[in-house]
Specification:
Blueprint lengths: L4 H28 L1 H8 L6 H15 L2 H14 L4 H14 L1 H12 L4 H11 L8 H26 L7 H8 L6 H18 L2 H13 L5 H14 L2 H6 L5 H23 L1 H15 L14 H23 L3 H11 L23 H31 L5 H32 L4 H36 L6 H25 L8 H28 L4 H29 L3 H10 L1
Helix pairs in contact: 1-8, 2-18, 3-4, 3-5, 4-5, 4-14, 4-18, 5-14, 5-16, 6-11, 6-16, 7-8, 10-11, 10-12, 11-12, 11-16, 12-14, 12-16, 14-16, 14-17, 15-16, 18-19, 18-20, 18-21, 19-20, 20-23, 20-24, 21-22, 21-23, 22-23
Length: 579
């Protein structure tokens, strides 16, 4: 056998060049289409048919079904999508991933694209240093496209020649004599190949090269493609390990959907492949069967494999589309809600969904900040309950406030770390950078609001320990103040869910003025009661402390709303430094 260890290293390196080119190409496309991706996502929630179109479109843009499915799992985990809505997107992603096979088989085997790829890199390389972000992204995508096909050419040159290495052919051929069992073996080989490369696109490219070089026959290559359809689901299932139950269900749906597709295709595989062969012979000028051992049939065989890949995935969606409700019920039985908190959305799982596209990642971060604001509102309700509910329930409210204050600390750190990862890994543009800065500001103020609610709960706890009761008039004033703060919280929550251009700060400023005016009026009444001896100085200190901290909460609430509009002090300060 004329193939040594150094030759094998060259093959691994060639695969690395191909994967590197695919990543650069995919990242560049995602940055170019960042805004469009966000628009496409809006179609996810309409119906399952639009979901299929969305999944196909997103995968076509990102050139990675793994990116799409991991994104879907992350969005389900964060509450951006429901499990039901995610099913259509997953089905569409299966179709979208077949575009890579067509791209490789058409350009990689039908044409000598390497000289063109090198020329493309030469043309676009200077634009990597351009000041225009969009131009840099286009240059990056085109350079990635060039590297991808250079890597493919390297792979073709690095694989052992069957004519010079008959032992290798005999080794592979030894697994083809078991009839249907041989098909199953190569389905497993395709699955393992995808697991090893962590890319169905790379696994498909390797399969196409093996077919083009005569290593494997067309039926064996088709079996490997089926295995790669199963292998591509593993990435999403790994991402869902730390996710909530709905994220796990979305990943399990992808796996079960693809496995069912592979099962029915294995049953009809022989006539199906013959049908593909007839189509290729009908449209081919040389009319050589793709089942032939003639080397002249190999270019058509690679096209036939791409046709098989696409037709299988399209038919699988068409056939199983009507059975999606049944598959969903099966998934729900396999992945039930085991505990009371298993269905709760938790920020600690956000790291499973970091995407290459800043637009995608920032949308997810915004959703998590919305959940953060909901926790703050719950702290408001708990504090209100602490003041006005029956005494026997006060310990429960104190415990809830303490737990949620710890949660706000965790939320601030983890969302901030996520935003940092977006800044470091995704190279966001100027608009995305400003949005990240404003999100940092929101996190800081939301965490401070959580601290303040916890602090005033400890004041009330001290009053309980000292058996100090609030006079009726003081209770009424605090109730008024709390109602004003809640109104401001409602407006803040609405602003957090909106894009900056839709945020109206007028209502937020009016709510803050109501809080300030109430504080001034209540403070005057408080001083009057102190002078009249209506309550002790000690109680007066506690009451005044609660009042001031509630007003301070109002200050942080308006800061959050301003950050939603893009006017945070953090962003302004950084922009001043940039100047």
């Amino acid at each position: 056998m004329n193939y040594g260890f150094f030759d094998f290293l060259q093959l691994i390196g060639s695969l690395g060049v191909f994967l590197f080119g695919m990543k650069i190409f995919s990242d560049g496309l995602q940055r170019i289409a960042g805004g469009k991706l966000r628009a496409i996502l809006k179609g996810m929630t309409k119906n399952r048919t639009l979901g299929v179109v969305t999944g196909f479109s997103t995968t076509a843009i990102t050139q990675s079904s793994s990116t799409t499915t991991v994104m879907v799992v992350s969005f389900v985990n964060a509450g951006l999508l429901t499990f039901i809505e995610s099913t259509g997107v997953i089905m569409g992603a299966n179709i979208g991933t077949t575009i890579t096979a067509w791209m490789v088989s058409l350009f990689g085997f039908k044409f000598q694209i390497t000289p063109l790829a090198i020329a493309m890199i030469g043309i676009f390389f200077p634009f990597l240093f351009a000041g225009n972000t969009k131009l840099k992204n286009i240059a990056e995508a085109m350079i990635g496209f060039g590297i991808l096909f250079i890597g493919l050419e390297f792979i073709k040159d690095s694989v052992p020649d069957i004519a010079e290495n008959p032992e290798l052919f005999e080794f592979l051929n030894s697994f083809t004599d078991f009839g249907f069992a041989s098909t199953i073996i190569f389905v497993l080989v395709g699955t393992v190949l995808t697991l090893v490369t962590q890319s169905s696109s790379a696994a498909t490219a390797i399969t196409l090269v093996m077919l083009a070089q005569g290593w494997i026959t067309f039926p064996i290559a088709a079996a490997m493609i089926l295995g790669e359809n199963i292998g591509t689901t593993v990435t999403a299932n790994i991402a869902a390990i730390v996710g909530n139950v709905y994220a796990k269900r979305a990943a399990r749906f992808h796996l079960i959907f693809n496995v069912i597709g592979v099962i029915w295709m294995l049953i009809v595989m022989v006539p199906f492949l013959k049908g593909i062969d007839h189509i290729m012979m009908y449209f081919s000028a040389d009319a050589i069967s793709v089942f032939s051992d003639d080397p002249a049939a190999r270019p058509n065989a690679t096209l036939a494999l791409s046709l098989f890949h696409t037709s299988f995935n399209v038919l699988n969606v068409i056939i199983l589309f009507a059975f999606v409700p049944q598959i969903i019920r099966l998934v729900e039985k396999i992945q039930p809600i085991k505990t009371e908190g298993d269905d709760r959305f938790k920020l600690q799982y956000i790291s499973s969904g970091l995407l290459s596209s800043p637009e995608m990642s920032l949308n997810q971060a915004q959703k998590e900040i919305e959940l953060f604001s909901t926790i703050i509102e719950k702290m408001h309700y708990s504090f209100t309950g602490l003041l006005f509910k029956k005494q026997k329930k006060q310990n429960k409210f104190l415990k809830k406030l303490e737990e949620r204050e710890k949660l706000t600390d965790t939320l601030e750190i983890e969302i901030a770390e996520y935003l940092t990862r977006i800044s470091e890994d995704s190279k966001p543009g100027e608009k995305a950078t400003r949005r990240i800065r404003n999100m940092y500001s929101m996190l800081n103020d939301l965490e401070r609001i959580g601290d303040l609610y916890f602090q005033i709960s400890k004041i009330v706890e001290r009053m309980m320990d000292e058996n100090i009761e609030l006079p009726p008039e003081a209770l009424e004033e605090l109730k008024e103040m709390l109602n004003n703060v809640h109104d401001a919280l409602d407006i803040m929550k609405e602003n957090v869910s909106l894009s900056p251009e839709k945020v109206d700060l007028n209502k937020a400023f009016e709510a803050e003025q109501k809080i300030n005016k109430a504080r001034e009026r209540i403070r005057t009444s408080h001083y009057a009661r102190l002078e009249n001896g209506s309550y002790s100085v000690r109680f007066g200190i506690y009451f005044f402390d609660i009042l001031n901290r509630l007003e301070k909460i109002g200050d942080h609430i308006i800061n959050v709303s301003e950050a939603c509009k893009g006017k945070s002090l953090i962003a302004k300060g950084i922009e001043e430094v940039d100047r």
